[in-house]
Amino acid sequence: MLYVVLSLFVLACFAPLLHRTFGRHSGNVFAILPAVLFAYFISYLPLISQGELITQRWLWFPGMNIHLSFLLDGLSVLFALLITGIGSFILLYANRYLAGHPALGRFFLFLLIFMGAMLGLVLSDNLITLFVFWELTTVSSFMLIGFNHEEAESRQKAHQGLMVTVIGGLALMTGFIMVGFAAGSYELSDILQQDLTAHTLYIPMIVLILLGAFTKSAQTPFHFWLPNAMAAPTPVSAYLHSATMVKAGIYLLARLQPTLGDSAAWMLTLSAVGAVTMLTGIVLASRATGVKKVLAYSTVMALGTLTMLLGLGTEKAALAAVTFLFAHALYKGALFMIAGILDHEAGIKDLLKASGLRHKMPKTCAVAIIAALSLAGVIPLFGFVAKELLLEAVLNGSHWQISLIIATVIANIFVVLVAALLAIKPWFGASLPTPKAAHDPGIAMLLGPTVLATLSLLFGLFPFIADKWLLQAAAKAVFGGEITTYLALWHGINLPLLLSVISLTCGLLLYSQWARWRQLTQGLERLSFLGPEALYNKMMAGLVAFAAWQTHVLQNGYLRNYLLTTIATMLLLVGWAMLRLDNFHLNLNFQDVKIQEATVFLILLVTILSAVLVKSFLAALALLGALGFAVALIYVFFSAVDVGITQVLVETITVLLLVLVLYRLPEFRKLSSNANRARDAIIAISSGAMITLLILLVTSARSMEGISSFFIEKSVPEGFGRNVVNVILVDFRALDTLGEIFVLALVAIGIYAMVHLRTGSKPVTNADKRLTSELKIAATSKGDAQ
Amino acid sequence: MSRQFNMRSLILSTGTTIILPLLLLFSLFLLLRGHNEPGGGFIGGLVAAAAIALKLFADDYPSAKSLLRVHPLQIVGVGLAIAALSSLPSLFVGENFFTAQWWTLYLPIFGPLKLSTPLFFDIGVYLCVIGTVLTAIFTLVEAEH
């Protein structure tokens, strides 16, 4: 399975290149891979549906129990099928929808990375691996949402989505570490065997994990980022919001349900937050007029419903949750793609402007109606099966039956309204002029919604197919025990059916009064300043202001102040730590000091004093150079020849660099007051004294043998080199060296950008001005790189 | 600054034509012997950078720049890439990331030649150091013009 996930990332890396080769067919070519993967996962269904559980493991950080391990069971295979199946349709669709876009290659790159990350997320058996993929989906979705990055709005919305989910991700990581600590393993297959509800860390654990899941899955009060993410191109919205990104939080809750779910805290939180989200989402959806906004808010509603169902914790609820999730992915994927078709082929983004399109777009209209009927939960579509099960699960729930059923029925009434808006409003009634000449799209764009809508119908008529092969096993994974309920289209005339009929009737009535309903609830808009989005904006503004303030204080543009701050901070921290040391004794031993060492020491002392006191740049530079060579001599005395050579070379090159800037310095004169000089002298002398003391302390307080003997011993047998310094640099500690040369590269870019930006004006002290200049640096270095 | 470059010394210039190739050769020598004797990528890189800087002082900036053919920042990038890539071969034989791999080639005339990922890593360091130092020097010189 590692290769399955990796294949998507590899294809992603080559996507821009392949896009150039295949031109306008590239998306169709890319769609082959997820389609193959879809078939691969289908081939596992016979095993999985018999309750098999497949795990595979590759070692990653064996020392920290972090592995690239994968788990395929009912729940993950359900998600994997949705991700790859809908994914290949999205690629076909996007290829046509964004045809001719100059950055299409980059689009496919991000989309395939996202697909791989999402697949990795649902297949991971290791919490840490799962978290890595979780963050990868966040980052790649940021790129996708902000794909039209020339538009300020698009950037801002992408940023918002990123901030909200990243904050949640941080909480999630802490929660995962706690789970790993409590369960003694990061492997889900181990964790799921345990019940952690009695652990002392249980409450902090679930608070953090829920925070992560709720932000990702747009639960109230974090729901605002999801509709805003509609700034993305429609194929992205269709993919991220039907089957993938926003369902990641739901996946996590469902996944951890057997381990964490059996407590009042978990159940009540999930039910309450889920129900509130459900109502918030659907009421906002009923007021929206943009096609994508309506769909986005109704997705919020669906996510709330799923959370609520997971909070019920019963066997029926588990089955209802996976059924609803599956049904939702099918019809919501189709509806989002139809929203894109409306925009692409007719130029319609707003429901108010759409009417009577059924003659011009007959095929689209038929597909839209089937998908919307499934959304409304009308017999015989799969949405009906899901909704009956939802009502039944809530009715037979363990707590709050009355309030939850009322909430569910109200939500369902509005769902019917939303479905009617999508099934009737654009298609029937008098024809309105459209911005573009409306017509049905080609096969590439219609294929996805058609197949998804057909599946809604097929699984509605024959629910046992989905049940037997997929949903039973998925529900079992969520519930953590055997499932004895089965899906059926017709349960006879019972209470859920009655409630369904009531919501259908009320929903249609509401549809006829839609304009009036919007007018009635107009007051809600005035409350938006109290909403979470307003709060988020205030928080962000505060953060930026704080950052500007502290930058102004700490980074005021004067190198001398930076040095002063850095050294004084180090002095305080280390000095304080040293003062608190208990056994403070030094082993000073001057007996084996050799004559040449003492000589070099004297030279050092004389040069440093002269360097401070001389009154010419050239003399000071020469003295500093002499100082460096004397230090190199010390290295050689202590048989660190490599370091000595390096020191000599660095001194030489420093002199070269100094010569180049020497003539640019102001002439040598006294610029600072005596008080300042005294202050600087005190800080310099005390920091030097402190470092000396520190080194003496460290060498005399060493309790264990140093690591150097290990390196010296292993250098020849394991590193095959007699030069220990070099073996350490390029073999034993090569990762450190890699980091260091990376810093070198950054320094080079920094020097280049800084000098080439040179404005020649007086130093900038104002924080705002500096920000603009930094942006300029980024722009210049980027431009130069290209 | 320009006053300095106008004072071109014939002796230094002629000397450099001879010393420069030797210095560059010496830097390669230092790079390759580094695993067993004092030397290595960092030291070798500094020597090579100093050699090119010598050309800059002996002749002029354009001739030093043309000696390099590419922008020093590109050298940094190539070096970084080589160093980073040398971490990967171990993964293909199932060992941990960055585990050193050694291969011995038997050449007909020269005898056995030992190649290893640490060597490639050191070459990456070498290029990175040359690129960084020369970026700094060239940028400062350019700022003069």
Automatic annotation (TrEMBL), chain A:
NCBIfam families: PRK12647.1
Pfam families linked: MbhD (PF13244), MbhE (PF20501), Proton_antipo_M (PF00361), Proton_antipo_N (PF00662)
Domain MrpA C-terminal/MbhD: 602-667
Presence of the UniProt keyword Isomerase in the record: no
Domain MrpA C-terminal/MbhE: 676-756
Native source species: Alishewanella tabrizica
Record carries keyword Cell membrane: yes
Protein known as: Na(+)/H(+) antiporter subunit A
Membrane topology classification: Multi-pass membrane protein
Transmembrane portions of the chain: 30-49, 70-95, 107-134, 162-184, 196-215, 266-285, 294-312, 318-343, 364-386, 398-422, 443-466, 486-511, 559-578, 598-614, 621-638, 644-663, 683-701, 737-755
Residue span(s) of domain NADH-Ubiquinone oxidoreductase (complex I) chain 5 N-terminal: 58-108
Keywords: Antiport, Cell membrane, Ion transport, Membrane, Transmembrane, Transmembrane helix, Transport
UniProt subcellular location: Cell membrane; Membrane
Segments forming domain NADH:quinone oxidoreductase/Mrp antiporter transmembrane: 124-410
PANTHER family listed in its UniProt record: NA(+)/H(+) ANTIPORTER SUBUNIT, NA(+)_H(+) ANTIPORTER SUBUNIT A
From TrEMBL, chain B:
Compartment(s): Cell membrane
First-listed, main subcellular location of the protein, grouped into a coarse class: membrane
Superkingdom in the source lineage: Bacteria
Protein name: Na(+)/H(+) antiporter subunit B
Family in the record: Belongs to the CPA3 antiporters (TC 2.A.63) subunit B family.
Keywords: Cell membrane, Membrane, Transmembrane, Transmembrane helix
Domain Na+/H+ antiporter MnhB subunit-related protein stretches: 11-135
UniProt cross-references to Pfam families, sorted A to Z: MnhB
Topological category with respect to the lipid bilayer: Multi-pass membrane protein
Transmembrane segments: 12-32, 38-58, 70-93, 123-141
